[in-house]
């Protein structure tokens, strides 16, 4: 697949703002969603082509219930056709919640005097990582407030510490970051620590709404945040995650903002975002947000389906902000990564006390899926999904793997599925209770049938046997 430049009112230039709110409003106002057009656009996406902003606007304007079903069905087909049934699992680890910004929606905002502030000490960080490893986690995203305590050097140090922690057969093989935007030098520093993806969410792409929600602190500067991932790219981090916080402004506007951001990264760096996130606003300590733009469950599923079709090659992340019944639905429509076993209270993974009610003053926002990693895996297996902890491409330097998965015929069957099987086999050997293990081995057998012809099954079996004999971290 080739990227193609889309004519936009603002020409893309590295480090230059690229959002024209008027243009997005015009697209939403002036596109019509006829049956024929919507179907042609879905077919284009199923042919593995990126959609333009105008085409995405057509899908956003499809209000007829039958057409909405067709869009969802298109997303479901694309997901099955391109990605199969793997779901990548990870966990968030909050390192520090001091924050000098004042985002109106966030429990960590500086004006919230009820927030219990904490930065994990090195020892606490190690204990939390050990606890995560004991559960079977292999991929983490470290999360930080924006504060002078969390300098690039501090972030890099915490990343290195996480990689060093080994508990039993456990280890963290990929550390992603969600933190404040850095300058180019800062991004270089964290890159050297071996990070995976660097995520920065624009929250809302609408400049005026943005200014209203971010009244003070460094985050008040819309443009600085908008091109932060340009700075990451300039620093050599080509693995970046974008996102919008749904509920702050019109969801249709935000979808086009995300597509416009994707265009910008493609135009300037010839690589789109590694992942797109679409967190939906949740209750939080000192939360006082007008519900005017709140996104219903139905709209939420719709917007995810449209994003899947608009940027068919990118990874899509859904977090435990959402309750399980929504997560289940969305997995079908194109979401490829979820967190599991999530605790967002500072230091909670290492806390051996009996589970307690969520205390919003200790958390950034409320989460709605508190199940353990094994409970999530168990349920994924019941639905014949293939849980994966794979980190092979990134460790072999096969960067842009999400793009290869999408564009190289047979890549998933040659690499992704066998590697998902090997990481699941490790989990089943080391951490799964008997019942889960039984289901897991069955799902592995089912998936083997699917990769025949692409991968030497005898070699895969030999590797599974090596895992059973105690070898770890084997991948194709
Ligand atoms: N401080 C960094 C920043 O703002 O970029 C790190 C990110 S913050 C810890 C992670 C993300 O959580 C934010 O980018 C925002 O999208 C999301 N978030 C904040 N408050 C939220 C809420 N009340 N409900 C859901 N998500 C929220
Ligand atoms: Fe701070 Fe991030 Fe929360 Fe804003 S969203 S108050 S920057 S932690």
**Quick one: CATH class of the largest domain?**
Alpha Beta
Count every helix, treating DSSP H or I runs of 4 or more residues as helices.
19
From the alpha carbons, calculate the radius of gyration and give it in angstroms.
Answer: 21 Å
Q: List ligands, each type once.
A: S-adenosylmethionine, iron/sulfur cluster
Could you give me the name of the CATH homologous superfamily of the largest domain?
A: Aldolase class I
Write the topology of this structure:
Elements: H1 21-30, H2 35-46, H3 53-60, H4 65-83, E1 86-96, H5 122-135, E2 139-144, H6 152-164, E3 166-167, E4 170-171, E5 174-178, H7 184-192, E6 198-199, H8 207-213, H9 222-226, H10 228-234, E7 240-243, H11 251-269, E8 275-277, H12 297-310, E9 315-318, H13 324-332, E10 337-339, H14 373-382, E11 386-388, H15 392-395, H16 401-407, H17 411-430, H18 434-451, H19 457-468
Parallel strand pairs: 1-2, 1-10, 1-11, 2-5, 5-6, 6-7, 7-8, 8-9, 9-10
Antiparallel strand pairs: 3-4
Helix pairs in contact: 1-11, 2-4, 3-11, 3-12, 4-12, 6-7, 11-12, 14-18, 17-18, 17-19
The structure holds S-adenosylmethionine (SAM) and iron/sulfur cluster.
S-adenosylmethionine binds next to loops.
């Amino acid at each position: 697949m080739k990227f193609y430049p889309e004519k936009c009112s603002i020409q893309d230039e590295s480090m230059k703002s690229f959002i024209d709110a008027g243009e997005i409003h015009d697209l939403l106002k002036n596109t019509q969603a006829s049956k024929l057009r919507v179907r042609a656009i879905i077919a284009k996406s199923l042919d593995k082509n990126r959609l333009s902003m105008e085409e995405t606007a057509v899908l956003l304007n499809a209000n007829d219930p039958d057409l909405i079903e067709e869009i969802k069905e298109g997303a479901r087909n694309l997901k099955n056709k391109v990605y199969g049934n793997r779901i990548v699992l990870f966990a968030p680890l909050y390192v520090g919640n001091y924050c000098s910004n004042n985002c109106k929606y966030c429990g960590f905002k500086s004006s919230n005097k009820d927030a219990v502030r904490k930065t994990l000490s090195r020892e606490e960080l190690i204990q939390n990582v050990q606890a995560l490893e004991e559960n079977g986690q292999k991929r983490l995203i470290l999360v930080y407030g924006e504060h002078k305590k969390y300098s690039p050097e501090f972030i890099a140090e915490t990343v290195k510490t996480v990689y060093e922690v080994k508990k039993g057969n456990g280890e963290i093989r990929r550390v992603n970051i969600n933190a404040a935007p850095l300058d180019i030098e800062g991004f270089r520093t964290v890159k050297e620590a071996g990070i995976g993806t660097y995520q920065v969410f624009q929250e809302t792409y609408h400049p005026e709404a943005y200014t209203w929600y971010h009244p003070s602190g460094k985050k008040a500067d819309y443009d600085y945040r908008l091109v932060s991932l340009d700075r990451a790219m300039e620093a050599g981090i080509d693995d970046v995650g974008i996102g919008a916080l749904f509920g702050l402004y019109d969801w249709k506007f935000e979808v086009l903002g995300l597509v416009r951001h994707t265009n910008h990264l493609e135009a300037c760096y010839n690589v789109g975002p590694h992942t797109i996130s679409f967190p939906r606003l949740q209750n939080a300590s000192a939360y006082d947000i007008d519900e005017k733009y709140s996104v219903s469950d139905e709209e939420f599923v719709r917007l995810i389906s449209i994003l899947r079709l608009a940027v068919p090659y990118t990874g899509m992340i859904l977090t435990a902000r959402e309750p399980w019944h929504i997560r289940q639905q969305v997995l079908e429509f194109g979401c490829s990564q979820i967190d599991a076993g999530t605790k967002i209270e500072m230091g909670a993974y290492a806390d051996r006390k009996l589970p307690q009610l969520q205390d919003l003053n200790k958390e950034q926002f409320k989460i709605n899926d508190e199940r353990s990693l094994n409970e999530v895996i168990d349920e994924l297996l019941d639905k014949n999904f293939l849980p994966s902890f794979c980190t092979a491409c990134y460790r072999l330097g096969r960067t842009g793997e999400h793009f290869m998965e999408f564009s190289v015929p047979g890549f998933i069957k040659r690499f992704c599925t066998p590697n998902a099987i090997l990481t699941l086999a490790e989990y089943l050997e080391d951490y799964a209770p008997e019942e889960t293990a039984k289901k897991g081995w069955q799902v592995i057998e089912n998936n083997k049938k699917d990769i025949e012809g692409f991968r030497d099954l005898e070699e895969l079996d030999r590797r599974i046997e090596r895992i059973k004999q105690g070898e770890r971290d084997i991948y194709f």
